[in-house]
Each structure stands twice: as C-alpha cells, then as structure tokens.
Amino acid sequence: MSSRRPMIAANWKMNGLLADGRLLARAVSEAAASAAPLCFDVVVCPPATLTYAVGEILKGSSVLLGAQDCVAAPQGAFTGDLSAPMFADLGAKALILGHSERRHGHGETSVQVAEKVKAAQAAGLITIVCVGETAAELDAGCTKAVLTQQVRESVPENVDSSKLVIAYEPVWAIGTGRQPVPSDVVTAHQLIRSLLGPMGPTVRILYGGSVNAANVGSISCEKEVDGVLVGGASLKAESFWSIAESFQKRVCLAA
Question: 101, 108, 133, 169: which is the annotated catalytic residue?
C-alpha cells in the first residue's frame, strides 16, 4: 500500500452563487465530520467570488479550502486578476493550475503554468498542476509526448515536492462520455511519476476526467492513483462524497 495520502479535490469551476456555495460547502463539511477520522485529504475549490464565504464555513473542519488559478505576480497593475497571496489571505491552502480549460480556452502555456506554480508555492499553497492530452493528440498516438512536455515545462526547478500534486486529466474524457480503461490511467500515472525524477515516489498524482460515482470504483483501486480531481460531480454533496468514500474504504480497510 502506498504511503501517499489520497486527495479528493472538488473543482466547482464557474458554478454557484452565494447561497448555493454556502449550502454545498456546509453539506461537504458535515459529511466529512460524520466520516471522521478521514484517511484522505479533501479540498474544495470554489470560484473566486465564493472563496471567502466557503472558507468561513469550512473553518475548523477537516476540509481544506482551495481556489482556481492565479496570476504569477504577487500584486500590481493586473486589472481583473487575482494573486496567490490574495487567496492565501482568504485561508486557501491549495490552488488548481494549468487546467485544460485554462490551457485550451485561454491559450495558457506550460511555461506560464510553471511561473504560477512558483508564485503559489511562495505563498504557501499546495499546487495541483493539471496535465493531459486532447482527443486529437490521443488519436495521433502523442499522449506520451504531450505528457512529457507538459510535466517537464509545468513543474519548475526547485519545486517544493511536499506542496506539489499532479492531476492527470485526459481532455478527451471531460464531458464526452469517453473514459480511459484503468490500465491506461495507470500507464499515464507511471509515466508522470517517472518524469518527476527522485521526487516521483512521494508526489500525489490524481486522476481527473469526468469522475463520478459510477466510474470511480475501477479507478480508486489502482495504487498508482492517489485520488481524484472532480468537476461536475462535485456540485452535489451526495455524489461528491460517494466518490470520496471509495478512497476511504481503500485506505482504511488496507491499514
């Protein structure tokens, strides 16, 4: 059994108004309290507008507050942007960076992701760095090349491995109904771990790609999978916690 503590991270993306966010955060917090002691880490990453409100509800609970994206600069003339220190100031402990929706929707490069990782870690945040191939890259047999380039360019030198998490998100599996078989997920995770060099054995590697209660079982039993980054299924506390419980069973029963 791996000594890496699993992480279950919720990415709410651009969803939720104030009342919705408070209700969802409270439900997740209560579920975590009922299941204590937890054998995994839980991170909730709401949109920026809900960071403070969700943080107030999660305060004192075992659920960590996270956030989505930041700019590399700590402050300055960047209208509309938010920095890592700003999120840390609100109580955030983790930050999602390099998500495919940033890379492909906003043209964000791996080099830019690496600069954000530096900034986030300087602010004391755990960095959840997303990598993954598109459908065209998969069909062209370029998965290995894409992951190699993204990992090498997105993870800066002298990174603090204790604050580094990698999320493998095959873009072609997000919202499409397509899913990789578990053996392909394991292969991708093994490749990513090897690319991380000496720190590879200690870094948590999550799977993300339309994870839900129906497909998480086959993923959670793989020892190379150190948790999941959950998108749409994290918007309902019941479905999110059902996913989390699959890792609770795996870790606690094996202990």
Answer: 169
What are the residues whose beta carbons fall under 8 Å from the beta carbon of 68, sequence distance 6 or more?
11, 12, 13, 45, 46, 47, 48, 95, 96, 99
pTM of the model: 0.96
Closest C-alpha to 51, from 85, 102, 100: 85
- Longest distance between any two alpha carbons in the chain, whole Å: 51
The question of whether 137 is a catalytic residue gets the answer no
Lowest mean pLDDT among 58-67, 155-164, 169-178: 169-178
Checking if the pLDDT of 243 tops 60, the result is yes
Q: Which pLDDT belongs to residue 3? A: 78
25 token code pair: 């955060």
Active site residue 169: yes
User: Which class does domain 7-254 fall in?
Assistant: alpha beta
- pLDDT for 164: 98
